[in-house]
Amino acid sequence: xxxxxxxxxxxxxxxxxxxxxxxQVLEGxxxxxKRPGMYIGSTGLAGLHHLIWEVVDNSVDEAMAGFCTRIVVxxxxxxxxxxxxxxxxxxxxxxxxxxxxxxxxxEVVLTVLHAGGKFGGGGYKVSGGLHGVGVSVVNALSxxxxxxxxxxxxxxSQEYAKGGKPQGKLAPVGSTPARGRTTGTxxxxxxxxxxxxxxxxxxxxxxxxxxxxxxxxxxRGLEIAFVDERPGREQEVTYLYKGGIVDFVKHLNASxxxxxxxxxxxxxxxxxxxxxxxxxxxxxxxxxxxxxYANGISTIEGGMHVEGFRTALTSVVNKYARxxxxxxxxxxxxxxxxxxxxxxxxxIVAVKLREPQFEGQTKAKLGNVSMRSFVQKVVNERLxxxxxxxxxxxxxxxxxxxxxxxxxxxxxxxxxAIRRKTALGGAGMPDKLKxxxxxxxxxxxxxxxxxxxxxxxxxxARDPRTQALLxxxxxxxxxxxxxxxxxxxxxxxxxxxxxxxxxxxEEFDPVKVRYHKxxxxxxxxVDGSHIRTLLLTFFFRQMKPLVENGYVYIAQPPLYSTExxxxxxxxxxxxxxxxxxxxxxxxxxxxxxxxxxxxxxxxELKETTMDPxxxxxxxxxLEEAALADEITSVLMGDDVESRKNFIQQNAKDxxxxxx
Length: 659
Fold this sequence. Notes:
Elements: H1 5-12, H2 30-34, H3 37-40, H4 45-64, E1 70-75, E2 81-85, H5 105-111, H6 134-140, E3 142-151, E4 154-161, E5 165-166, E6 171-175, E7 184-191, H7 205-218, E8 223-228, E9 235-239, H8 245-252, E10 264-269, E11 275-282, E12 289-294, E13 297-298, H9 304-322, H10 338-342, E14 345-352, E15 358-359, E16 365-366, H11 369-389, H12 391-424, E17 445-450, H13 452-461, E18 467-472, H14 484-487, H15 491-500, E19 517-521, H16 526-542, H17 544-548, E20 552-555, E21 560-564, E22 567-571, H18 574-583, E23 592-593, H19 602-610, E24 617-619, H20 625-636, H21 640-649
Parallel strand pairs: 1-8, 12-14, 17-18, 17-19, 19-20
Antiparallel strand pairs: 1-2, 2-7, 3-4, 3-7, 4-5, 4-6, 8-9, 10-11, 11-14, 12-13, 15-16, 20-24, 21-22, 21-23
Helix pairs in contact: 4-6, 4-7, 9-11, 9-12, 13-19
């Protein structure tokens, strides 16, 4: 084995001295500014909105503790976000001991990581913070923050700037107003544009509204108001649900056809202080929507509470189906599977506990083992009672599950037919798949291309070592309105399943996926958007782990091209075109509209859309499963009025609808 002189030198004579002087200690909030992604996930739009969640979560914790009844979130015309609550107010007295002795408790909370009332000091029995870093992180990532506290008849205020540095001590600024709240906290912050440079500091109203509505559902009787003061976007919305998660289930099923009008609901607590709150209702659709929450946090990866619910549900429904003088399941019949019973189910499983343990890829899976047996016991007892007390609804549930079981058998036969067909075909891959050379899934990419002509262009533009192509003809089946057995008869669906390689439905295994980037490459027009939506619906409903693992992407072919001198410029959309014209007011050349992928030559397609060093991809994520479920049902279901309302309400944020 040989080595270059440079390699030999670096191994024996380090060019940089490494001793105690090389160790850097980040003080105060510096770690947050140095590595913001560690604390808020990203410095894109998701991270920007995470700042709001951190502040609002503190107010919600006050509500869960029984001290707050109203929260107001305001997006101001000046670009700030203001969160007001009528809770107890952050303590204002001096901190009693340690290195922070003498500072106000407010300043400690806002400038010290992991400082707050959620670490066993008696401030909260139950809280929603995942990491306990909270509002100090918001302070660190803001160019300015102002906190105002009403407590004991006095109003206090303090300002921070330039990444969380106090601009003076906490001081009284007057008396609490005679009208309005008597106690509470207001935090107003201006996100730092240097931190959020990639996608800017403009909040998206719909993103905020969705999260606030979920919080209101999960906290029965808590009023959460949203005010947008930005010019041209003014609106006020208030959420208050006296039915709590019962209203949540009704809301999620609003765009579907309910199997019956009643919502089963039961709540229970134990001597350990654990609380289990469950609501469920079936619809006539084919997909389950079980959404778990722990202390108000969406557990999109499930966890022990969801596991306990599923186990109990399967057991209770099977026992009911075999009970009585004329059982719906006979002795010779096989038990219904959990998959059969959960078809068309919408359920909320919300738990509260003192020391939640979160795990999993996104830290959103509840790991407390005791919660599994607790939820299972509650659902076993209370759901069995509900079925006995509501025989009409119970019979409909069982009959739907039996119908699902029959479809499951038909789907299994269809799957076996596909497997036999691929086995007889040799390699087993679809004829139109142009595969890549690599067998390393981590570097392999599958472009799903609309139309044969675009496929021909993309074939020349691709890197055959890492990039595979699968042309699809026209619009694939809308899987929102079809069971799996019908889907498996569709040629385009068959090709997708075979090419991707992880299976389909309940059997889907992300470990077997052949490509870690599955990219929808569609025209930048209405038909292309529809095809992309159909593909995303299929992935969300039948290959959900593909989305959860971050393997699904949307390609961004440009909509326009123009020239500056002899250089060709590509512009993604109308917004990019307008921005270009603002920066180049004297530009006289025409803009060519690149409507179809087939109209681009392969060099253009490679340069703008397929070359990893120059392209832009949108990654499809799944942060709020309940919201994704609802939006998929609204956009792809049968309820035209719901779809119309959704489009009208979100017209102002139209540039975000593809994400």
